[in-house]
Design goal:
This protein has 248 residues and is an alpha+beta fold. Helices cover 36% and strands 22% of the residues. Helix 6 runs antiparallel to helix 7 (223-239).
């Protein structure tokens, strides 16, 4: 396979968490002059990066190492216009069609290019910021990489999670991390000032479950539903003696 995803260890995950919080605070309190009056606009037609094992969630960050030629062009094109790349999960059986356009799940997440580090040989390291969920309406293949016309799928505004739902999630997480002796590392996530959507989406990103299970979380209709699904998955991992491998 000619695409590599930068691995996230527990320490680098926390580093991106801290960077995410810093960038979020900057966006809220110190916007760039050109962004003060106009929110970031997501194009209706975007490149789609189809991956076999990665699901992007809103308000999280995804580092990627790009070296396949068609995706080098995709990044160059995104830099020149739109600044957005959609991340979509490949469906089962993609291996035999990887260099074509194997089927993907229609629901994904738009990522905004916040960092591009060009390398001497044409490769690059990029960092995407998850913005909003989307649904693919029509795919197109005029370029070497997949493109799609999309419709955004913002969730209905929720002031906050039901306190009982959040407490159930936090309790399940504490029990799971305690069983793996990771609780001190992730203790900061139990603070009340961590917003519900950042808590749920970040835990959905770093929980060691399958890509299909992460897709199941992404497709939840509401944040409450995603939090409940996440709690159930944590409980499953705690009772699956062969499947739980920790956080990474």
């Amino acid at each position: 396979m000619c695409l590599a995803v930068a691995p996230l260890t527990i320490l680098s995950a926390i580093g991106y968490r801290d960077r995410m919080q810093t960038d979020h605070e900057r966006d809220q309190h110190e916007p760039e002059p050109s962004e003060k009056s106009t929110p970031f606009s997501i194009p209706e037609h975007i490149p789609v990066f189809a991956l076999p094992n990665v699901v992007l969630f809103p308000k999280t960050y995804l580092p990627l190492h790009i070296f396949e030629p068609r995706y080098r062009q995709m990044v160059d094109d995104a830099v020149m216009g739109g600044q957005c790349i959609g991340i979509a999960l490949l469906k089962e059986g993609w291996e035999s069609e990887y260099y074509g356009n194997p089927p993907v799940f229609s629901n994904g997440c738009v990522g905004r290019l916040v960092s591009v580090q060009p390398l001497a040989d044409g490769r690059s390291n990029i960092l995407l910021q998850g913005l909003e969920r989307f649904e693919i309406i029509v795919e197109s293949y005029e370029k070497p990489y997949r493109q799609a016309s999309i419709t955004l799928k913002p969730r209905a505004a929720e002031a906050s999670l039901d306190p009982a739902v959040r407490q159930r999630l936090v309790t399940a997480l504490e029990d799971y991390l305690r069983s793996r002796q990771d609780a001190p590392t992730w203790q900061g996530w139990f603070r009340e000032d961590v917003s519900d959507d950042i808590l749920v989406n970040t835990l959905s990103t770093y929980l060691d479950c399958t890509p299909l299970e992460k897709q199941f979380l992404l497709e939840a209709a509401t944040l409450h539903q995603q939090a409940r699904r996440l709690s159930d998955l944590i409980q499953f991992l705690m009772h699956d003696h062969h499947g739980a491998k920790g956080w990474g």
